[in-house]
Amino acid sequence: MRTVRITAKTIEAAVAEGLEKLGISREEAVVHVVEQPSSGLFGLIHKKMAVVDISAPDEEAAEDTVEEASPAEEAPAAEIPAEEAKEETPAEVPQAEEAAEEVKEEVPAEEKKAEREEPTFDPEEQKKVAEEAKTFLTGVFAGMHLAVTMECRMTEERIMINLVGDGLGILIGKHGQTLDALQYLTNLAAGKSFRHHYFILLDVENYRERRQDTLEALARRLAGKVKRTGEEIRLEPMAAGERRIIHLALQDDHAVSTDSEGEAPYRYVVIRPKD
Q: How far is CA 67 from CA 32, 62, 70, 221, 229, in A?
């Protein structure tokens, strides 16, 4: 069996180059994805190329060869608006809410007791956390050469920091992926010295509110299509927070139901007609 290893920006580009080098068709090839591509943290740091092995079976064994599908090729197709489908692949970054949803561990009795004894809300301590968050963000923005104004508001539920400035689209990323990553890191950096957790919500010029309106409108539109056709619809993979918006938008619609399916980071919402 002849095998070539190709490195390219995307899996598709690597497969196409490998097929050309081997002089075979896609149906004849055995494809193994060695490494998934990633745009890196904030789209700037630790970018990764796709690495793919493409094999051509020996002629006498060609008929017996079973093609291997990569995880990316097996991922379920998601029905999304055409304008959203053109965006780049989201960076693979840790997300606090995704981790909380996907990983459930048994907490030892000692830790449960410590949680019960956790200090209650303290306004002065919350202010210190907010200052720590702004200090951390100031360092990040300085490294990215961005001029950013931080508008901070606080309630007992959260610390809300709205970022304002020119050219801040880089802080949002596809569907808020980069913003979620920055928010995750900010919560880690600002809360490491405090036992009580004061949640920090980052936003860029009220992007999150606009995104919520977009998702709710999308949910209603696709629910209408499900009712007309009687067929289920799978949305594109989303973060846990965005899937929650879809679920809540349709929870009072008695004609459809919603479920989250798939494995992180490719979990997606399915909208189905109710019997």
A: 9, 10, 10, 38, 34
Let me know: does 48 contact 10? Beta carbons within 8 Å.
Answer: no
pTM greater than 0.85 (yes/no): no
User: Containing domain of residue 177, as a range?
Assistant: 122-205
Tokens of 238: 């989303």
Say if residues 88 and 106 touch (Cβ distance below 8 Å): no
Residue 89 counted as domain residue:
no
Query: Which of 11, 13, 8 minimizes the C-alpha distance to 33?
Result: 11
Question: How many CB atoms are closer than 10 A to CB 69?
Answer: 13
pLDDT tens, position by position, 184-196: 999 999 988 888 8
CA distances from 168 to 38, 171, 187 (A): 21, 5, 20
Which residues fall within 8 angstroms of residue 11, CB to CB, at 6 or more apart?
Answer: 33, 36, 37, 50, 52, 70, 72, 73
